[in-house]
């Protein structure tokens, strides 16, 4: 799943750069979805456009953390959430590493625009899907191992485990 979303992100960015003119809005689904090519050096909403290298480092850290945590997963919903997060982070990290103006300073290709929403790409959408999955799983009390915590059975903390061990 990660690979499918990652490839979809990269292919759509290549197509956008090849077929769209920067700054020119092109309707796709009326006014609901339009193509609008920009190069974004910052984060969402073009935040911190002068700190591209920071977002490069953050994306790399996210990728490493997700890959390391994925070893603990025993839950399909968590695997999907992490897959979407990994695909989005690696998609935008690829842009930051390989696109102009240079290594680790590259600008992310954004080209999808909804009404009253910032311009985004498939990787950004994937990160948003991951955020929704993670929020739902956390609210429902689903652990990385697939077990579900309820109010009646709280997760044991360190002091409870020591008492149970007779310490």
Whole-number count of domains: 1
Largest sheet: 3 strands, antiparallel
Strand content: 5-15%
Overall pLDDT level: 87
Output the keywords.
single chain; 167 residues; mainly alpha; 3-stranded antiparallel β-sheet; 5 helices; 51% helix; globular; hydrolase
Question: What can you see in these coordinates?
Answer:
- It is a single chain.
- With 167 residues, the chain is mostly helical.
- It has one domain (2-164).
- It has helices spanning 2-19, 52-70, 76-98, 122-139, 158-164; strands at residues 25-29, 33-40, 108-113.
- A 3-stranded antiparallel beta sheet has the order 1-2-3.
- Strand 1 and strand 2 (33-40) form a beta hairpin.
- Helix 1 (2-19) runs parallel beside helix 3 (76-98) and helix 3 (76-98) runs antiparallel to helix 4.
- The model has no long low-confidence stretch (mean pLDDT 87).
């Amino acid at each position: 799943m990660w690979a499918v979303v990652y490839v979809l992100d990269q292919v759509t960015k290549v197509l956008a750069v090849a077929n769209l003119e920067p700054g020119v809005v092109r309707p796709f689904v009326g006014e609901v979805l339009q193509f609008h090519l920009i190069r974004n050096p910052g984060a969402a909403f073009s935040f911190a456009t002068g700190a591209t290298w920071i977002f490069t480092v953050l994306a790399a850290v996210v990728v490493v953390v997700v890959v390391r945590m994925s070893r603990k997963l025993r839950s399909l919903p968590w695997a999907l959430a992490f897959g979407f997060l990994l695909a989005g982070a690696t998609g935008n990290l690829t842009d930051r590493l390989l696109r102009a103006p240079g290594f680790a300073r590259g600008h992310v290709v954004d080209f999808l625009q909804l009404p009253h929403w910032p311009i985004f790409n498939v990787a950004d959408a994937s990160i948003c899907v991951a955020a929704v999955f993670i929020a739902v799983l956390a609210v429902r009390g689903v652990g990385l191992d697939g077990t579900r915590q309820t109010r009646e059975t709280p997760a044991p903390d360190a002091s409870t485990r020591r008492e149970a061990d007779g310490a």
